[in-house]
Amino acid sequence: MQTFLEAFLVPAIQAVVVVLLMLLAVAYITLLERKVIAFMQVRIGPNRVGPRGLLQPIADVVKLLLKEDIVPAKADRFVFWLAPILVTMTAIAALAVIPWAGTDATLHVLGYEIRPVITDVNVGIIYVLSISSIGVFGIVLGGWASHSKYPLLGGLRSAAQMISYEVPLGLAIIGALMIAETASTVKIVEWQARHTWLFWLQPVGVLLFYIAGVAENNRAPFDLPEAESELVAGFHTEYSGMKFAFFFLGEYISMIVVSALVVTIYFGGWLPITFGLGYLVPAIPAALSGAWGGPGVHLAFGVFWFALKTFLVLYVYLWLRATFPRYRYDQLMEVGWKFMIPVSLAWILFTGVALLAFDALAA
Amino acid sequence: MFRTQELEINMGPQHPATHGVLRLLLTLDGETIVGMKPIIGYLHRGVEKLSETRTYPQIIPYTDRLDYVASFAENHSYVGAVEKLLGIDPPPRAKYLRVILAEFQRIASHLLWLATHALDIGAMTIFLYTFREREKILDLFEAYCGARLTYNAVRIGGMPFDLPDGWVDAAKRMLDEFPVRLQQYETLLTNNRIWRKRTEGIGVIDADTALAWGLTGPSLRGSGIDYDVRKHLPYEVYDELDFDVPVGERGDTYDRYLVRMEEMRQSRRIILQALENLPDGDVMTRVPKRIKAPAGAEAYFMTESPRGEMSVYLQADGSDKPYRVRFRSPSFNNLQALPVLSKGHMVADVIALIGTIDIVLGCVDR
Amino acid sequence: MAIKVKRTPRPERPPLWKRLVLGELIEGLMVTLVHNFRALREPFTVQYPDEQLPLEPRYRGVPRLRSHPETGEELCISCHQCERICPDRCIHIEDEPHPSGRGKRPRVFTIDYERCCLCGLCVEACPTKPVTSIYMSHDFELARYRRDEFKADLRELYFGKDKVVYGRRS
Fold first, then answer.
1. What phi, psi does A39 have (nearest 5°)?
2. pTM of the model
């Protein structure tokens, strides 16, 4: 029987820590993005604030805080204010089920059990999907409430885009869930610890999931809602100051969420990078995951591997942005409905048949 | 209860993708374009009228500011017209220099076109890669005439300077590595499925319509008409040089992209030949200190600027100033076809189309 | 002369297997990746105020006046040629007799940098060849705080402007 403190206070403290860490991470991802894209374009990128530009995010935050917060004259003030909060809140809420280390890393402080995940619900992955679909409203409402034409177009685009890509996003992971026979984010990693990375079993699934995730986050090459060369800045054209910062924050946290989900579902979450072959020589992953130490060591190693993998997936986001042109709105729909959804359905069928065949062979 | 309404939206004059101060009044049904009206004049400086109050040599710097990304071509057209008016024949070395610099200018201008075209469609890295190469060409121009953008590098009767030491080697070095760079751009775009989707079948204009709207340059050649002033009315020494005129098949944005990419290769070929055959001698003939043209004389001279046929009409009144100067700028005519090109397309395509007709607003508004 | 036309056929779409594994997209990604690592070593950027690219000898900065670099004698003979050729009419000259009794020299020589388009025609018109009195300097940093600071008088034309320190005005 959990006490009130165990059920509420511990996750609350964890949540505050995670949110603060995320704010820091987002700040530095913006710097990373600018640096990585700069390097891809043979530039240097920000390097004036602090050594090698490392304090640039702080300067940016200060600038955004000090900026005048403009609300267009005919905007719907309440919705205009609500939209960025909705985007950020839903993005943050999705972080609740992401495990950043194994259950071995459970700490015991003052008799309270602190697990390395805020909450491990048995429908964790489905929870993330459903939460992220609420985030769409933020963008649509933001585009509508601005009472301006470019944001309106941006908002409509994002409504169509995000709703269409919810479907393949959900369908793409069904294969993985079928194999692992769980929708809990913790259990799916534990399954991969026992067997292998789901990536090897679901190469098409991970591709579909990632593409749909990029589209769901409105990132290039699917950044139509904010396509700066077409719609100026899309749904956040009229936003400034902290409200704009919240949209920004929401977008980057969603990127982290999708990357973390890709890592959790397909690349073995907190497990060390042994390319899913750890079961061959169990000593290697054991050594790399800090099994020789206590829960603290476990936690450190788990977070390290998880962060490293998430970083690599995030890097691909930036890499795509630097390389590809942007789809057109109707072509994006076409790719979503005519390609992604049929392929993901076929992939589910294939996975099911393969599973049945495997069971029959094993029996 | 419900009614639908078309949305009127102003794209520009302050818009990231209108390449300057073009304003497009779009009428949209959803995202589909029902009507489009280009509104120009935000950069009108009255260069034609202003030229009437300046002497012939004084007008050359003004032509720099017409098409400011290919100012050499504009200098060249204007000076060509004055030379035709006065019957001056520049020495052969000057002619070769003009061809070499004009083709370098074409490459530089096409690189800028590629950069902005790709950037508008969303591929932003190409922008900086092409600017890197363009920078090298601008260095060559700087070494030749001292300026990087507004060259003022042609004089009535020849060229102001001879090539500085080491210029030919630097030019050859640049041209040697250029195909590698071009291949990189092609890897990023030509077969990229998104790029093809965004450009194939967009802004199709058939040969007859293109002619009727007075398109010239790569925009016309994309529709399959092999009209190139360098071949049809060869000026300077273009008839001594061997090069091909690339033309497209279907007249869509992708064809115009391919044509311009091929033109860069052909320009490289022209420069290499011209550097090979570069004759010795003076770069300037003797011209009177005060250039006067007989009253009533007129001249019309056209060159193939990177954007199309750039021609200059001059009428003299016997003084040292022209009576009338008219610049027929390719950007202006090409822009007029934009509503035709964009009919039935979507907002995102407008961006691709502004890129594909390759306008420079300084050249449109004059 | 027959016109040689080069049809630009559409490049064949990549083969099916290549499209299925997103081959052409990956090729594109490789280009940017290679640049990423190359840029870590040698970025193309020049950190402008800290480092500057070398200017070519013929570089056309703002026009200035000079004395003969070896003999030190005043070169300008106040012939008004540059004033006449200037397309922007930004040069203004007033004469005075030369103290030596021969010829003239400028009493007032103003170039309005606000209007100057750096075309270099004045240098070509200058008759004091081979060392021209007016020349294109290598100075291109033209920002000033007030409009009247753009009118360069004889002193500035000969000795240049004190370096403008950009920053908060006291």
1. -65, -40
2. 0.86
CB-based contact, A159 to chain B, within 8 Å: no
Please give the structure tokens belonging to residue B11. Answer: 């794209």
Element (H, E) at C151: strand C151-152
Domain membership of residue C81 (yes or no) is yes
Q: Within 13 Å and on the Cβ side, how many CA atoms surround A121?
A: 11
Q: What is the DSSP string of A12-44?
A: HHHHHHHHHHHHHHHHHHHHHHHHHHHHHTT--
Cα–Cα distance, B30 to B345 (Å, whole number): 11
| Boundaries of every domain in chain B | 43-365
B57 touches chain C (CB under 8 A): yes
**CB atoms B64 and C119 under 8 Å:** yes
Angle, in degrees to the nearest 10, between helices C23-41 and A295-323:
110
| Residue B127 C-alpha from the chain's centroid | 18
In a domain, C19, yes or no: no
Q: How many domains does chain C have?
A: 1
| Per-residue burial over A127-148, b = 16 or more CB atoms within 10 Å of its CB, e = otherwise | bbbebbbebbbbbbbbbbbbeb
At A239, the amino acid letter reads Y
CA-nearest residue of chain C to A315? C33
Q: Do A44 and C47 count as a contact with CB atoms less than 8 A apart? A: yes
Whats the size of chain C, residue-wise? 170
Domains of chain A, by residue range, sit at 70-362
Q: Which residues of B touch C118 (CB under 8 A)?
A: 147, 150
* pLDDT score for C170: 46
Chain C positions touching B59 (Cβ under 8 A) are 87
C84: domain range?
63-159
Query: Closest Cα of chain B to A147: distance in Å?
Result: 13
Q: Are strands B23-29 and A112-114 parallel, antiparallel or unpaired?
A: unpaired
What contacts 24+ positions apart, CB below 8 Å, involve C101-108? C103/C77, C103/C78, C104/C77, C104/C78, C105/C74, C105/C76, C105/C77, C105/C78, C106/C76, C106/C78, C106/C154, C108/C153, C108/C154
Specify whether the CB–CB gap between B63 and B74 falls below 8 A: yes
Q: What is the pLDDT of residues A311-320, one digit of tens each?
A: 888 888 888 8
Count of C-beta atoms within a 10 Å radius of residue C117: 17
Does some domain include residue C40? no
- Residue A19: φ, ψ to 5°: -65, -40
Chain C: residue whose CA lies nearest to A40: C36
* pLDDT tens by residue, A232-275: 777 788 888 888 888 888 888 888 888 888 888 888 777 777 77
Are residues B128 and A330, on separate chains, in Cβ contact within 8 Å? no
Is residue C136 in a domain? Answer: yes
A187 token code pair: 């259990």
Question: Residue B226: which of C5, C14, C44 has the nearest Cβ?
Answer: C5
pLDDT band at A188 (very low <50, low <70, confident <90, very high): confident
Q: What is the C-alpha to C-alpha distance for residues B283 and B145, in angstroms, rounded to an integer?
A: 14
Chain B residue at shortest CA distance from A43: B128
Q: How many whole angstroms separate alpha carbon A224 and alpha carbon A244?
A: 18
- State the amino acid at position C85 in one-letter form: I
**C78/chain B closest Cα distance in angstroms:** 18
- List the single residue in A with minimal CA-CA distance to C27: A323
Superfamily of domain B43-365: Cytochrome-c3 Hydrogenase, chain B (1.10.645.10)
Task: Out of A153, A221, A329, name the one closest to residue B122 (CB).
Answer: A221
Cβ-defined contact of A41 to B129 (cutoff 8 Å): yes
